[in-house]
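Need tokens for this chain, all 70 residues.
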Amino acid sequence: VGGICDVVNDDSNGLLSDDISEDSYYNAVKRFLQMSDAEIKQMAENCINSFSKFDIETTSSLYLELFSKQ
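Here are the structure tokens for all 70 residues:
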């Protein structure tokens, strides 16, 4: 899906499939199921940290800053 590759880093803050084929999706799910609990916890933390810049408070502050300069 467009844009996902720009924010999801494979094996860091999520898992990406190589393409849209059934086999590719299967392999991504299989990789997830083979991860340890510690790896899943670390990936979840990475995900939260990498997407925090998109929360409503951060983005609204950036918009206010941008529009106040004009």
